[in-house]
Predict the 3D structure of the following.
Amino acid sequence: MKKTFLSLVIVFVLSMGAQSQINLIGATIDPVSGAVELAKWQAFDSLSVRVIPTIIDGYFFTTSAFDALNSEYYITGFSGDSTGLYSYNTGTGTERLMTASTYTNISEFDMSTGKMYNLVIDSTDYVNVYEYDVNSNLDTFRGTIYEPGLIGLFADAIGFDSNNGIIYYVGSAAGSSMFLYAISVRGGFSYTKTTLNTTAPINYIFGINFDNINEKIYALNDTYDSLFTLTGRNVVEINKVTGDVISRGNLSEFPYYVGGSSSFDQATSTYLLVGIDSAGNTKMIGFNTLTNTYVAGFVPSIVSEIVCDNSVFARRTYGSTSGITQSSTSPISLYPNPVTDVLTIANTLAGPIKIQVFSALGNQVFEQDCNASNNIRLNLESLSPGLYVLNLRSNDQTISEKILVQ
């Protein structure tokens, strides 16, 4: 889907400048009736809370996920004798309870396609990966991970790189080491396993979230000594290549946290979590991964299974089908896209052409002037993998398209 660079810049600037525009949704329980409700609000804004009744009687721990492309909140719930995947559309307000899926508490959505991916232990030593199509309510088996000695899977330990179609999962095998699994699910199926370089005797890494603008993995890391005494709680970045676990900030003032409450606002690069301080007060923590600072404040009571509504980001970044599709009416076409080194631009523009490439945050990373040509070749091998915006300016006409560098 074609969009102008200017509109992208305006969206990112406005979003990053106003934390109150971080939209959240979670599950809660009415303290009087015991009914399951949803709470929608803007981060730290007590006046923005909206409570929504649901058709379910209960839900399961750490099973929430959000389809940002279609504005659908999902949680595993039950109503009477029926158990299934409950959904609520934050745009239309419609809800439903579907059955027949292998959804688990290790699930995440691809924001560019609206597909859900699930990790399921099929038998001892094997983890199956499934792709779930919400529209058809069908699962597709994608592949198997063989891990001898595997006992179980960690909850709330999965993130999705929607630029490249990669599931990132943190877990452990038979020994004490922890691993980062990078599972590629677009096209064919493949995965790599990288040992995490931790410093404490015992680590519990959870709350995995992927930053699709800066191509980084963020998580919480609880560290323990050899006697299982908690020694620290930190927001960390996990290096996808080396496995280094890099501390970004200490959250020691919150000795407890609400399970299933971590989320990530893509537009502002904010990692969110509900913490409980030493006085027993529940607070929403907003950790800015660009500045390594955080603020703590209001969060609705008895709320968990929190997700960030990244619908605006997903639609502006990936469009209605995919972030790398080209407009059929555009005077240019790009190939290959995704690109690893040389990008060819087939175009019908006339006159001198100025070519610019911008990162998703609006920083110019490439510029070149050239004369009109039916095919222009750009060497982009110096760019880091990620999503970019390509601008072509000819006379008074500017054409913008998205490119994905791998």
User: Anything to note?
Assistant: The chain has two helices and 33 strands. The two ends are 20 Å apart (CA to CA). The domain at 332-405 is CATH 2.60.40.3080 (Immunoglobulin-like).
